[in-house]
Design goal:
177 residues; mainly beta; 2 domains; three-stranded antiparallel sheet; 40% strand; disordered N terminus
């Protein structure tokens, strides 16, 4: 094997004809596998590069749901003191409209993987999350009548370099700050 570029994780390998099953490193949070067919004339033809796609495990999805629900509830309880960069924008905009109460939590339908650059730890695997809307009520103030509002949140899961730890974050906007 020889790297394609310095620091690159990609490698070139000469293979005998056949079908090869390739799997990613074991992880409690991710699975990855691909079947690669190789023909006898693979040396003269340019083969499409097989993608080893990472998929979240049910354990990771369950943890993301649980942690996101905890963070959303904490945002509502914080009222005016909520973290404006980490809480859902709809809540932030109404944080001074009286008491906020979450009446239905958003449902995380799935997690989509992408390679990203972590803040100071180098490359890590992160996720953009796809969420279904939740709803909250606000009690109102003398100048604002009580009401309710649907809200969406976005967030992600940052995995540790060894792949065993995971930190779930909410982002106030659709993209990480």
């Amino acid at each position: 094997m020889s790297p394609l570029a310095p620091g690159s994780a990609d490698r070139r390998v000469l293979l005998y004809p056949g079908r090869y099953h390739i799997e990613g490193a074991p992880s409690p949070w991710l699975t990855a596998s691909v079947d690669l067919p190789v023909t006898h004339d693979h040396v003269t033809q340019r083969l499409p590069s097989p993608a080893l796609l990472h998929r979240s495990t049910s354990a990771l999805l369950d943890r993301a749901r649980s942690e996101a629900n905890r963070l959303i509830t904490r945002c509502a309880a914080a009222g005016r003191a909520m973290d404006q960069q980490r809480c859902p924008s709809a809540m932030v905009w109404r944080r001074d409209h009286g008491k906020l109460t979450v009446t239905s939590l958003p449902d995380i339908a799935g997690l989509g993987a992408y390679l990203g650059t972590a803040r100071q730890t180098g490359r890590t695997l992160q996720f953009n999350s796809m969420w279904q809307p939740g709803e909250f009520t606000y009690s109102g103030t003398p100048s604002v009548p009580p009401g309710h509002r649907r809200f969406n949140v976005s967030g992600g899961v940052e995995l540790t370099e060894d792949g065993n730890g995971a930190r779930i974050e909410l982002w106030g906007e659709p993209y990480p700050p």
